[in-house]
Design a protein that fits this description.
Elements (H helix, E strand, L loop, with lengths): L1 H10 L12 E2 L3 E6 L3 E10 L3 E5 L9 E8 L2 E13 L2 E6 L4 H19 L4
Antiparallel strand pairs: 1-3, 2-3, 2-5, 3-4, 4-7, 5-6, 6-7
Length: about 120
């Protein structure tokens, strides 16, 4: 259903995303340390201050707490997150804690928001 909502939002810029924080496209390599699946490699799709979505080729159970390791323009991030949703190969993770790593996430989101504004994407 989320994919349908995202697709509709992409088609009609007048539709508002009712999430707590806006999402920003970002591509980066990510490592996911899962208790049930071991270490997985993937690529990020988008990020917000509360979570990140990735593309993975191996299934990770919904509700599992995993450790994410990736690098943003404002520094490396190692943070725990919960697997909240899955749509085909795309997974949504909700950050579980506010750590020093969260400062890099917040700074990156703010930087991407400014870029989006300057490019007239809002």
């Amino acid at each position: 259903m989320e994919a349908q909502n995202q697709l509709a939002a992409t088609r009609d810029p007048g539709i508002v995303d009712h999430r707590r924080q806006p999402r920003f496209k970002i591509e980066a390599a990510i490592s996911i340390n899962s208790r049930s699946c071991g270490v997985l490699k993937g690529h990020t799709v988008d990020i917000s201050e509360s979570g990140i979505s990735t593309l993975l080729t191996i299934e990770v159970p919904l509700g599992e707490i995993v450790e994410l390791d990736f690098t943003l323009p404002f520094g490396p991030v190692k943070i725990y997150a919960m697997v909240r949703q899955r749509n085909a190969f795309r997974y949504g993770f909700q950050f579980m804690e506010l750590t020093a790593a969260h400062a890099a996430i917040r700074a990156t989101c703010r930087h991407l928001a400014v870029e989006r504004t300057l490019l007239g994407e809002l």
